[in-house]
Amino acid sequence: MLATRIRRWKSVALTTAAVLVGLTAPTLTATPAAATTTAYDSTYYKNAVGKTGTSLKSALHTIISSQTKLSYSALWDALKNTDQDPNNSSNVKLLYSGISRSKSLNGGSSGNWNREHVWAISHGDLTTSTGPGTDLHHIRPEDVAVNSTRGNKDFDNGGSSFTNSGGSLTDSDSFEPRDAVKGDVARMIFYMAVRYEGDDGFANLEVNSSVSNGSNPYIGKLAILKAWNDEDPPDAFEERRNQVIYDTYQHNRNPFIDHPEWVESIW
């Protein structure tokens, strides 16, 4: 790992049951991500460090828009590398279900894994032509049936379990990923909202507070995604993935993996 981190994560206040008459259970809160430093701050991020708000977003957009673009078919082999199970090099780790599945079982049949677009294709008509619909930073391996269950739903808390859910939940209009990857999902969504600003022939993607975005180029809910970013900081798997994409494939980074605190600064 090239990046050297200094991160202090404050504890999350936990909701507890009120057991005495007259007491109200405390509200679940998440402390915003603490500031970090990386080896890329003086090089890759040098034009962004020290900025906030729209200035930071604009600077990051310029930085990460310089990338090598992949074809949709090239994603198969790329995902076998970026999402390799650290405990079994013959397998990939599926995003929402957490299942470890053979790399060779990629495809569209039952029992296969396929290419899940975390920013759903229909939200802004991404298509699978080279561009945002093939951006490796938001595409992850997932069980075919689980991928279908998520569909193009926005993200929110709540819902019911389903086959191979791994702890993920869904209801009629939203999807909640398992706890271990909630931050991963949030940071992929925020990456897409900064990378694609409508200035390169693709839709201007934005995060909003709705779960009824349909085909509009938006995904919600903003407050929930911000909380997930704080509650589930980047782990070794996510950091390795970011590095592999940077070194081997697209040669751009997800800045919110390197600097989770930039989410709060922009949004």
UniProtKB/TrEMBL annotation:
It comes from the Bacteria. The keyword Nucleus does not apply. This is Endonuclease I family protein. Residues 1-30 form the signal peptide. Residues 157-168 have a biased composition (Low complexity). InterPro entries: Endonuclease-I (IPR007346), His-Me_finger_sf (IPR044925). Residues 145-175 are annotated as: Disordered. Pfam families: Endonuclease_1. SUPFAM superfamilies: His-Me finger endonucleases.
